[in-house]
Amino acid sequence: MGLRDQITQDTKTILEDTETGFGWDISITDPDGNTGALKGYSNDIAQVVDPDTGTAITGRAASVALHFESLSDVGLSLPEGIADKSEKPWIITFNDIVGQSYIFKVSESQPDRAMGVVVCLLGAYKA
Amino acid sequence: MDLIDKQDNFEVIRDQIAAILVTETANQMALATAAGRDPTLWDLRVYLERSAPFEQFLNDPETDSGVPIVNIWVDGSQYNKSASNVMARQKSETVYNIDCYGLGVSADNPAGGHIPGDEQASYETQRATRLVRNILMAAENTYLQARGLVWLRWFNSTEFFQPQIDGRTVQNVKGARAAFQVDFNEFSPQGDETNILELLTTAISRAEDGQIILNADYQYPL
To answer: Do the chains contact at B61 and A105, CB–CB below 8 Å?
Structure first.
């Protein structure tokens, strides 16, 4: 196994380890309504960094990091931001640490095709 | 000088701008209701001198009413010497920043597709600036209902802000700043006038050679 394959496997382990790591249950629905339950890394904090000044400012930033293989295992393609109003967006749902569920849409996806990880930046969504 | 226990007119005008917006939006909502329209489309949340009034958009954007937020704050004043006097009255040209914030939350469209939150945020912001401009530039508010105090009111500019893509956040909030200039009088304390003058009695007479003589009897120094 080459180093890149090793990296991919290690990344999957890190993202999806719910016993000893930061893995978390995430539900994802594509624009056609196909839903998959997988594990990944979720993030939802009330602080963002102003890109102009580099200082922390008030805001709310949420994202998930998912492994390519896990998406493929549940029959889903790579999520992406959908600008076309005639289509449904990609929907991501996960709980916070106290069990409160939040629904987001994918605003932007940032795939890393070398490591096999896609980071999805999320926006608020009313289902 | 007596105790200065009054507002300056820049504060009075600031409060007046807010009062006009609050009163007229309530009136607009009543008119909308009477016309069978959705009154919330004419609603604004008006704040004065707040640093982060949009905080309520942040944590639960899905449940917020989405009514645009307007924040009025004093940016600065310049004093026109040529239209003022050094004793009692100065003409102030003050700019008030009227910041409008609109929230948009992406939502499912039952008719198909979805409603994008970034587009909605822009429309909400523009709707807020539309209401603010129309209300404050209406003929009845030519002098901001303070004729005799206000010389002129005028929107110098309106600037719309685009969100930074690098800092993409959960909420879609857009902003606009309307720079609203108001020219008005500021008055300064005049002190106790009763002790400024002392009564002087003079007698004017003509001497035999025609010379004019002024006689006055007073204590000096005063």
So the answer is: no
Q: Where are the beta strands (DSSP E) in A18-116?
A: 24-29, 35-49, 56-67, 91-95, 101-112
Among candidates B59, B108, B117 on the partner chain, residue whose Cβ is nearest the Cβ of A60: B59
CB contact under 8 A, B170 and A82: no
| pLDDT (tens digit per residue) in A5-31 | 898 889 998 899 988 888 999 999 999
Q: Is B114–A123 a contact, with Cβ atoms under 8 angstroms apart? A: no
Confidence check on the interface: ipTM exceeds 0.85, yes or no: no
Extended strands (E) in chain B: 45-48, 69-80, 89-104, 106-108, 114-115, 150-161, 172-187, 202-206, 212-216
Q: Which residue of chain A comes nearest to B173, CA vs CA?
A: A59
pLDDT digits (tens, 9 = 90+) for B94-139: 999 999 999 999 999 999 999 999 999 999 999 999 999 999 999 9
Note the residue count of chain A: 127
Query: If 0-12 CB within 10 Å is exposed, 13-18 middle and 19+ buried, where does residue B6 land?
Result: exposed
Taking CB atoms and an 8 Å limit, are A87 and B172 in contact across chains?
A: no
